[in-house]
Predict the structure of Peptidase A1 domain-containing protein.
Amino acid sequence: MHFVRIFNISKFSTNCGDKQKFDNASSSTFVHDGRPWNMPFGRDHAKGVQGNDTMRFGSEGSQQLVVPRTIVDIADYIPKSFLNYKNDGVVGLAFTSISVNGVLPPLINAINQGLLDQPLFTVYLEHRGLADNVYGGLYTYGGIDTENCAEDIAYQPLSSASFYQFQVLGLALGSYSIRRQYQAISSTASGFIGGPKTITNALASAAGAKYDEDGDLYWIDCDAHPAELEITIGPNTYYVEPVNMMIRTNATNNQCLFALFEFESGGFGPSWVS
């Protein structure tokens, strides 16, 4: 998910486990704001107070995008489920229209300050499966990633400048296909593709994957050779290779996760998330 906020965990938080915590007293550029914030995360939430500081995109010692005067949310409470994640916070890369308290997201702030060569960013996610503490890909701010992206670049208008939302015209895999207009959002929060259960069931079945009701997951034999998943967006059809749909786990029965999940918006939001 391209979240719309950035939050750090306060050193005074009480439920944040062994997460790295932010000490604003150690920052010479931090300015206290004091406005409270509350952000829903599923059935739980995160909350705290706002501050203003200089944000740096990129790891220490690398070429960084430095964005002064950026609103940051200092969390004193985070969702219990967040304790299981390896990351220590959330960075917002989407639009002001869905920002809590209407704050300016950091990347929009960078664009407004003229810090980027182009008002865009590129995401490359490397195929790694289930792994921790490994190189997972690359974000390129202000330009196209020419090392990992093909030369042919296609643009699709957003249907909503909230999340990165666009229209999908159809999907197909093997013997199954459906031609219908759907709203979809691009998300980096998961390597899986979510959609209506009837469609994900049909796609999984065409691939030879089986639904696990207990885990709400799809499993497929790791030696299987399903067809590519085809997604039609605008005038173009994009192909997701099987290697990017099959994720090895610690399962001992040669079963891989098949990267689909049920996503039901109830008609109040996009039908697909990827």
User: Anything to note?
Assistant: The domain at 160-273 is CATH 2.40.70.10 (Cathepsin D, subunit A; domain 1). The longest helix spans residues 197-207.
